Every structure is written in C-alpha cells, then in structure tokens.
Amino acid sequence: MRVELEAAYILHTRAYRESSLLVYALTAEHGVVHLISRAAKKKNGNMIQPLTKCYLTWSGKGSLLSLNKVELEHSKYTRNFRSHVQCLYIHELLLRLVPERSPAPELFDLYEQTLEKMLKLSTDEGCLRAFELELLAIIGHPLQLDFDYQNNLAVEAEQYYRYVPDAGPVLSAGLNQTWDSVTGRALLDMAAGDFRAENLPAMKRFLRGLLEFYLRGKPVLTRQLLKVN
C-alpha cells in the first residue's frame, strides 16, 4: 500500500536506532498512523516535529509503515508553555484512545479547529472540555447528558446525578466525592456546549474521571507537567 501526500499533523516522535525516528501522526483520511522515518536526522528531522502540519507519503504493510516523503505546510509550535502542554495533552489522548488507522476525517477537523483556538487563547479551558466531549463521541462513546435514562425524565439543573458510562445520568440524593457524581446544571451546560468559567471546575472533575475510566486507569503523563484539564 502506498499513500501519497496526505494532510497530517505530527503528534509525537521518538528516536529509533541510530538515525531513524518513529513518527506518530494524525492524518486526514487514515486516522492515527505509526511510521518509521529512516535516516530522519540527516534528511528531514527538523520538519518532523509535533504541532507541524505537513503532507506525508508512506508505504508498506503491517503496523509500522515507511515514511517516504514529508512536505511541510506550517508549524504551530508555540513558546507559550501552557499552550504547548495543552497541545501535548490532546496528543496523548489521541494516541491512547484512538485505534491505529481508524479513518475519522471529523477527528482531523476537530483537532485542527481546537489547535487554532488553544494557540490563540491558552487560558480557554472550555475548548479542552469541548474537545474531550467530541473526542469521546467520535471514538464511539457519545455522552447522553440531558436525560435520566433510568427514570425516563429530563435532567433538571437543580438536581444531582450519578453518571453511568455508555448509559447516562441517574437521579441521586446528593453529591459525593467520586467523579461520577455531578450536578444537573453541569450536565445541561455540557449538553448545550456552554463552557462558562464558573461551571468549568465541575465539568473538569467529571470529564477527568470519565476519561480515566476509558483509559482503564492508565495515567495521563502531561498532567504531571501542568494541570491542563
């Protein structure tokens, strides 16, 4: 199989043997791909950097493909530490949650739009929350937020709920310290795409716990650098 000049963003690279790189990229038509760039340090290592939009040509079979050509469009590298770590956080979620070579053009569009927003305003945590919600939907875990599935009732802002993954909220007597305990107001705001600052702490706590559930408890390493979510 050979793919010619597909739009992509570099998510991560790491050294492989003496002169090669392993390249992890989000592509427009093939989803997340794992590539090996041989002699990358001599040929185009400076072009293969995270936050770089480029056009990739690759070939081969199996899980590790050969990167044959890179054409750089532009780099989104930022010297703002917070913005940079937020981007790395998104990259980590993509690499951990998105199956390799699972085509999802809408994911590429979501990533590109989120990247533009974050680099313009690094303090806007709302765009991270929106990304997390959309990512979960794209990988097959859409959140049902505005309907109590067990009692067949609409969620009410003044009530409290327990959220069941892949099912939805259930009416609860009150809040507790677990991630799945959430207010009706937070659920309705997320359903409406309303990420006002006063509601973000509750959304952050809820989405962090939900993501950890789907990550099967594996730690998100970028949280150790900066509390981006």
Write a brief structural summary.
The chain has 229 residues and is α+β, with helices and mostly antiparallel strands. It is 32% helix and 29% strand.
What are the salient characteristics of this protein?
about 230 residues; alpha+beta; OB fold (Dihydrolipoamide Acetyltransferase, E2P); de novo design (two linked rop proteins); 2 domains; five-stranded mixed β-barrel; three-stranded antiparallel β-sheet; 6 helices; about 30% helix
Secondary-structure map:
Blueprint: E1 2-16, E2 20-27, E3 31-37, H1 40-43, E4 52-59, E5 65-75, H2 81-97, H3 105-120, H4 125-138, E6 147-148, E7 153-154, E8 160-164, E9 168-172, E10 181-183, H5 184-191, H6 200-214
Parallel strand pairs: 3-5
Antiparallel strand pairs: 1-2, 1-4, 2-3, 4-5, 6-7, 8-9, 8-10
Helix pairs in contact: 2-3, 3-4, 4-6
